[in-house]
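User: Hi! I have a protein structure encoded as tokens and I'd like to know what sequence might fold into it. I'm fairly new to this, so please keep things simple.
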């Protein structure tokens, strides 16, 4: 696979750049310490008039002079209409990654000014280094670009508010301030940086660094690849006897793994998937599953397979039939950016019946879920097992490492004894549920949260090499 050729669409994903032109909505004027000092000077003469009465006559004069100076300063300074502001960012931001935001300020007046810019970012965004106010000197008839980076905590659609722009006056007596622009929408997508990392490692043959083993696809499939000279380690059943007779030496047939096979990713979005999978971190089981499915989908379409997606909870929310190519990968990412867990009980019965009615050809059906009560578990076993042997069903769950640790911890008081007993019961129930699935022909994959992505990809590569699809 030529990694350089496939990296370009991912690098461009998120374009075109969204360019928002911002117009003035509201303005105000704020006196500076310099102006306040002039006013306090007049107040000094007013206080001194108690001892020297004629000094009180200077107070109104100084106030009048200060008012005239402030008015002239405002007139000589750039006006709100002299500024135009643009906010530029990628149209598709990545979740849990630093995304650059540029605020471009144009000074169309004949006066220079020092400017301060504060952007109104969504509440779920964090600003890098807490730089909420950006400042710069802006000469006359010039442009300046102020940059910062935001870190979105969750996927979904958000809105930037108006930009707060403040600038100094010509003589420094006042600060002018304007709230410019309107709210603008932005979409936060699953993080695609994992794909760039995978491609970079794949080019150097080091995908093992992220837990993905290298795929040995040659000679294990059933699609003809090429003829080559026989080597001692080759299976004698791969010898092409007609080519051997023609060339006068042993010739081996090399096969490649089949392409254009169906792969369906089913994502449970019910209440169990809303639980945090990494202790105190805000990352939920669903967040980890979506990150895994994004990279899983990319690798599948790059290997020529047809990738599909279905999300559901109490009902089916989205269904994308299996299709090949990068366009399908982009459709999957678009379908996943707004997926969130719902506080409802998952209806596996309805979702798997819906998938069965699509009557698609033989597929790898990878279901990401978490078992709940016995009723839901029985429905999942019954309907997922019904896909075998016409399909290859695979049930993927996240192992709760805190329960595993509690089951292995040596008890030291009555409370710890009860905790260990409960943990062992939960683990036994989980093992029984997994064994029931395997008896119905469903493969299971139960892994810790931090191993989910690599485990899913390795299982997919293993099934491809064993020609199970």
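Assistant: Happy to help. Inverse folding works backwards from shape to sequence: for each of the 469 positions I chose a residue that suits the local structure. Here it is:
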């Amino acid at each position: 696979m030529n990694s350089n050729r496939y990296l370009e669409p991912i690098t461009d994903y998120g374009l075109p750049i969204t360019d928002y032109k911002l117009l003035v909505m509201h303005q105000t004027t704020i006196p500076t310490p310099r102006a306040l000092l002039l006013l306090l000077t007049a107040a000094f003469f007013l206080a001194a008039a108690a001892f020297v009465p004629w000094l009180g006559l200077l107070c109104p004069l100084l106030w009048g002079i200060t008012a005239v100076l402030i008015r002239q300063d405002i007139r000589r300074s750039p006006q709100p209409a002299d500024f135009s502001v643009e906010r530029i960012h990628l149209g598709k931001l990545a979740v849990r990654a630093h995304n650059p935001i540029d605020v471009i300020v144009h000074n169309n007046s004949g006066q220079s000014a020092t400017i301060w810019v504060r952007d109104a970012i969504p509440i779920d965004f964090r600003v890098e280094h807490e730089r909420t106010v950006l400042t710069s000197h802006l000469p006359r008839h010039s442009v300046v670009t102020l940059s910062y980076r935001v870190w979105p905590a969750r996927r979904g659609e958000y809105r930037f508010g108006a930009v707060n722009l403040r600038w100094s006056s010509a003589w420094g007596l006042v600060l002018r301030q304007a709230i410019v622009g309107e709210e603008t929408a932005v979409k936060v997508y699953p993080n695609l940086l994992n794909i760039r990392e995978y491609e970079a490692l794949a080019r150097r043959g080091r995908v093992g660094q992220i837990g993905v083993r290298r795929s040995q696809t040659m000679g294990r499939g059933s699609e003809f690849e090429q003829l080559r000279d026989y080597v001692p380690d080759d299976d004698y059943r791969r010898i092409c006897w007609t080519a051997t007779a023609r060339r006068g030496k042993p010739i081996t047939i090399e096969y490649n793994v089949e392409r254009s096979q169906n792969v369906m990713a089913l994502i449970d979005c019910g209440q169990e998937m809303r639980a945090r999978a990494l202790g105190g971190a805000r990352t939920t089981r669903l967040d980890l599953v979506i990150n895994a499915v994004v990279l899983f989908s990319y690798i599948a379409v790059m290997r020529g397979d047809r990738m599909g997606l279905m999300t559901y909870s109490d009902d089916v929310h989205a269904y994308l039939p299996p299709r090949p190519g990068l366009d399908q990968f982009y459709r999957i990412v678009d379908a996943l950016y707004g997926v969130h867990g719902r506080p409802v009980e998952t209806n596996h019965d309805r979702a798997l019946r819906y998938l069965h009615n699509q009557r698609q050809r033989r597929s790898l059906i990878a279901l990401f879920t978490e078992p709940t009560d016995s009723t839901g578990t029985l429905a999942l076993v019954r309907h997922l097992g019904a896909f075998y042997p016409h399909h290859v069903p695979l049930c993927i769950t996240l192992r709760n490492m805190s329960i595993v640790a509690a089951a292995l911890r040596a008890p030291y008081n009555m409370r710890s004894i009860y905790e260990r007993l409960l943990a062992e019961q939960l683990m036994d129930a989980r093992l029984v549920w997994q064994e029931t699935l395997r008896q119905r022909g469903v493969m299971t994959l139960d892994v810790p949260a931090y191993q989910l992505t690599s485990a899913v990809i390795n299982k997919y590569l293993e099934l491809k090499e064993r020609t199970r699809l």
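A useful reference point when you look it over: Residues 1-20 have pLDDT under 50 and may be disordered. Feel free to ask if any position seems puzzling.
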